[in-house]
Structure formats: structure tokens, C-alpha cells
Predict the structure of Membrane protein.
Amino acid sequence: MPLTDHGRVRKQQFHDRLGILHHRHLHRKLKERFPAAFNTRWTRRHWLHASLFATLGALVATIVPGFSSQLEPASQLHATLPLQLPPLTVRAPVEGAGRSWDVVQIESGQTLGGVFDKMGVPAATMHRILDNPANREALTRLRPGVELGFELDEHGDLRGFRFDRSPTQRVELDLRGERVHEKVLERATTTRLAVTSAEIDHSLYAAGRKAGLSPAAIAVMTDDIFKYDIDFKDVQPGDRFSAVVEETWREGERIGTGRILAATFSTAGKTYTGFRFERNGKAEYFTADGRPLKKSFIRMPIQYARLSSKFGSRRHPVLGTMRMHKGVDYAASTGTPIMAAGDARVQFVGTQRGYGNVVILDHGKGHTTLYAHMSRFGKVKKGQAVSQGTVIGYVGATGLATGPHLHYEFRVNGVHRNPLSVTMPPPEPLKGADLAAFKAATAPTLARMESMEQLMFAHTDAAKKNKRG
């Protein structure tokens, strides 16, 4: 019999003998401790003590055999194998890695000079940075929330400076040495579509900002999309709007909103809808059936003005004679901007007798408009194409005028018409391939807006209903 088998037999005999002794010893102890327990029915106390002794016995049986393994020397085999390790590689430090930046976020009313002073950086160092015109343009128009990075050495001297020149460009300046070295890092951005809806509580602006729209996006909605259909001075609490907006994201953070691709506005029991679409290379807003929201002409080519004289026969305020007033007058302060009433080509820029400084626009199809008594002209010249809303001049009192105002005329095939009552020609709707492309592009956008409105306003309406109930 091999030595290993013999050892196992001896070990097993030892365990068996130890178990018999353990059993006899435990039995004797229990009988001495509880003599009545072996002749009568056990109580809960008997079972408790028996359980305790059984547990102690199990521990002894587990521990003691461990010593028995020391009776036989265990033979252990060791083997050593050669292991081929790859050669040690020393990596060069990555440029810019491990740099420590103290990041400062601009607060409202804070200036660049104040930030540098707070960081203990001399004004001379700031001027070194601003010597670059590109840096000066970005750093002198800081808005709250903008972040600036300062890299200071152990003596508190500025080694590096970091700022965002644009949403996609981060500039790092190395100020060590005589010259400022610049490194421009491109920061990838992505564009996502977001749908937002809100109900006006106090003001449209407050509701729009709460819904995540930028001031510029709110202005597009009021001044571009719905300006022809809605008088926003009459907007009431409870009116609603929705918008599909492009959002710009960078490194998991939303950094701004872009174009409004679609919007709806519900007021006075009626809902208006606008969709952005490019026609002939120019972006416009259209109704769901492809009709332009933008009218061919705006009735009033000047804002914040008062109608001071109507169209028709009147006594001339300067000459004192009865004569036909072939336009309407709007009283306004000198220098108030005057806008083109519609898309046009500039027909005339100059001076005409009693009209003073005049601009005449040709809108095509026999329609022309005249703007008189200007204090000065806008940046327009004869033959230039202008879009509706372009500033063509400023209110004045040149020519025969008793005070600063705009004299505005509307002509159809050379015949003067009342600008306040004339039927304006409708804009050209989308047709053919343009209409098909528009329908295909706007269908998913409309579905997304409707889903958002159902989700949000259904909850709002239910809450109002419960409140009334």
C-alpha cells in the first residue's frame, strides 16, 4: 500500500475514534446535567441546553480534526516557469495634460479688469492678451455665465489663460516668454431638435424664458412668424404656444438655441401655425397648407408712431390751401427708423421739392411706395434690392413740414391709394415641387408638436378642471 493511502487510512481511523469518544463524552455530560431528561418528556429548557451542547460539539469536531493534519507532513510541489514580459515602455507626457486651471465664471456686472484684479493678475498682463484684436473682441463683451481659465505658477504669476472665442473654439494662451503663444482647440457641437410648450401666465416673455426659449427665439416668434396675425399687446393669460427649436449641445451641455423650425400660437380661441421653409434660397414661414405668413406689405412702415393725417382732401398745414393729401402721415421723433413696406428694388433716393429727402421703392406688378421728409437716408442706393423691414431712412422734417413725421404713399400703376384701406396683393403660395417638399418636411414636425401639446396641456386642463370641481 502506498504511503499516501496508508496515511489516509490512519487519518480516517483517528476521525472515527474521535467521534466515538466525543459522542460518549457528550452523552455522559448530558445525563449528569439532565438525569430526568432521559426518562421524562423534554421541556423547552431541555431542548435549549441540548442545542447549546450540540453546537459546541460541532465546533470541537471542526477544530480538532484540523490539528490531525499536522500528524502527517504534507508534501508540497513547487514549480518555476520562465515568463516572458513585454519590454518596459516609457510614455512621453501629453502636451497640456495635468495643467491646473482656476476657472472663474463671470457674474452680472463683472468686468474683465475686475476678474484679473480678483485673481491678482496685473493689468499689464491683461493688456498683453487684449493686444490681439480677436481676443479683444471676445473678451470685451463678456456675458454672465462665461468661464475664464487662469493657470498660475507657484509665485502667483499667470502662465496660461483660457477662454471661449466662439461656441466651437476654445483658445489657450501661453504667456511664458516675451511672446504670447496661442493654441485654438476645436470643440465639437451637435444640433438637436427640441419641442417646448407653455401657457402664458403673466407675460409671453416670462413664459417663453421658462420654457427654455432664448430672447432671440421669442423675438422671432413675435416679430417674424406671427407679427401679421397677432397683436401681442392683446395676449392674455391662458394663451398657449409651442415651438420646435434647434438646440446646440457641446460636451453634454446645452449652450444655446437656434432657429425655430415651427411654432403654434393659440389666442382668442384661434390657433395660428407657422413652419420654416427655404424657397429660392430664402427662409420664410408658411401656414400648414403652404401659404406664406409674411404679407406682401406691412400697413405701417414705422413703429411707435401716431397717425397724424389721413388720406384725402385737407388744408395743407404749410401752404394753407385745400389740396389732396395723397398719403398718410405718421408723427414720430426725429431719427425714428423707417422700414421698407415690402420686398422691393430701390427706384429713387434723393430730394424732391416739398417732399424733402425721399425714397421710392418698386415692389413689382405696378406697386410702388414713397417715404418722405426723412432726416437722413439708410444704407440704400438706387437699384439695390431690399427686404421687407429693411431700414431705408429716418424720420425728419425736411421739405414742407411743420414737424418731424413720415409721409407715406402707396401707388398701384401710378394711381395713389389709401395705405390704410387698400387691398394688399397676397403673397405667392408654394406650388408644385416646392409644396411637395414642404409637406414632406413639415409633417413629422407637426406630429411632434401635437404630441407635446397633448401631453402637456391635457395635464394642465385636467388640473384646472379638478380645481374648478
